[in-house]
Amino acid sequence: MSSDGEDNVTTGDATAVENSPIEEQQRLNLTVEVKSVGPCRKHVSVTIPEADIAMIRDASLDDFAGGAEVPGFRIGRVPRSLLKKRFKNELADQVKQKVLLQSLEQMSEDNDIDPINQPNIDVDSLDIPDSGDCSYEFDVEVRPEFDVPDYSNFKIDRPSGEITEQELKAFKEQFLESYSNQEKVDRAAAAGDSVLVDIEFKHDGKEVRENENVSLRLRPTLRFQDAVLEGFDGLIEGASAGDTRSASVTISVQAPIVEMRGEKIDIQFTVKEVRQHSRPELDKQFLDQFNSDSEENLDEQIRAALERQIEFQQRQAARDQVLEKITESADWDLPESLVKQQTENALRREMLEMSQAGFTREQISARENEIRQNAIENTRKALKEHFVLDRIATKENIECEAKDIDTELMMMSFQSGEPLRRVRARMVKSGMIENMEAQLRERKAVDYILEQASFNEIDRKPAAENTVTAASFAICGNMSSSLIDDSANEE
Q1: Is the pLDDT of residue 21 over 50?
Q2: pLDDT tens digits, one per residue of 66-83
Q3: Residues 6+ apart with CB under 8 A from 80
Q4: Which domains does the chain have, with CATH numbers?
């Protein structure tokens, strides 16, 4: 394809590719015109000459002649003129299908278009004329054209440092809290409690939505999918069943409901129950969830989980620097339709990495809401990173193998306490297994770059305390449901 994004290409017998899946005598003398019509978008015009259509029509008629059953005639002896008349519609459909499929296959072989998804072809409106040439057009989103940056010998800052006993103790408490038992209490809400509330949202005095029986942990930050309320714990502390508390938030500028971006929303919480949390007993039943035979063994696994989180943070810090360097020159535009389509995939990938790194369900849910509020900007950035890493992985012959998938699923099984079979089934059902494959391939590409990098060791920050509680819905609605499987927490 020419550098200016526009080609007029005529292909025929002289351009046949050796060992092509389309046999030499069946190749079509196509005229293909490819034009750039926007960011990552091509407009393709295909013309099939009358002679090639006649060849396909004769081949289809031969197919019918060999098996058509017509009263008064033996199979294979029906006159062709009668077949044309009796099976006119069936023949037309078969010819259309053959013309379309064969021309698309040959066009794809002979033209470097590199589509991202299926072409947008209106098959119903495609008409194969009885005489004359046949033409059709379509738009298709394609991978961007760019030069791969030099990714050799990067210099990377890497956070490092030993785990302290204080960190480990805090992380253990946080881990056990995620499995805590809730008990209704007849008192005012205090730090560490959860509350069951009805929530009413209003904009300019008019109700936007109402949610009943929402369970929320008292933490400094309450994060919705499209807004954040700071000071939530201080707002609710001291409230008892029947009390109300009011606050206001501003809808994120990245919210999908354009007219609500930046708008102020008034919130009223009506407390229905106060629930205190009690740490689970470290008995055999609890320990069995993690294949542990003692608290000491569980502590070892918790330490390993914390080490994985620190490794995750190190990898993310290094990854962010690598991605910043390799996308410095990625100033090409992306179509908004592609950005919207890929928003969920970008979100799933981050949730998957956090799950693999051992973060709790609450932490992942809180991060999910944060990402959703910045989904458009983040997805555009993630797509550019994906295209660059994909090109690097292709250049270096980097692939995700079955054993890589198995290893990641086993780690997720341990962290969640679920059987490996159930984890795999859920990943396949949700479609996240494909995200995992892409994520692992890109991780391998980053790792390849890091193998050639030099590192500057810097002090890492201590593991952060969980200060966020998440509501798994958007105030303004019309956002996708949470990707976090809460079935294990349902009462």
Answers
A1: no
A2: 776 677 776 767 777 777
A3: 61, 65
A4: 6-141 (3.30.70.1050), 155-175+287-460 (1.10.3120), 181-278 (3.10.50.40)
